[in-house]
Design goal:
0% strand, mainly alpha, 8 helices, single chain, 57% helix, elongated, 434 Repressor (Amino-terminal Domain)
Amino acid sequence: MNTKFNEEWCLNMARLEGDAEIGAGMLAIDPVFDGELSEPREQDEPAVAFGRFVRLMRRGRGLDRESLADTADIDIMELVSIEEDPHFRPEVRTVYQLSMFFDLPRENLLQIAGLTRPKDDRIYEEAVRFAARSEPVAALTPEEREALEAFVAVLSEKK
């Protein structure tokens, strides 16, 4: 049997699917990139939010970095960079693996990771708000206070 699909049939099928995501199940390890790469950001708030989000989700599940990297099948050095460097741009595959591990839509994580153009301003705005609110406020240790005061003294010296 030889079946032919014309362009009209394909377009009708695409309309019926709407925005539905089609996957190949858990055996699909490598993602198919379905977005547009974004230009480097002028602002890093969403990337800061991505790193803090990953850190808090990991800690919320009681995992150290090594455990998350092993379980999600991602490179531990990349995970460290995601959590520590707000300018770091993770690999698409890494964001895909994290989205599967955290059971969240990859499109949204790709946006806050800075890998695709923002499609939803609300996500961008909430990422900025999250970044601002997720920084822990903890009292300085005596050692930190001493180091800070010594540094401020040097900065305050007039020549």
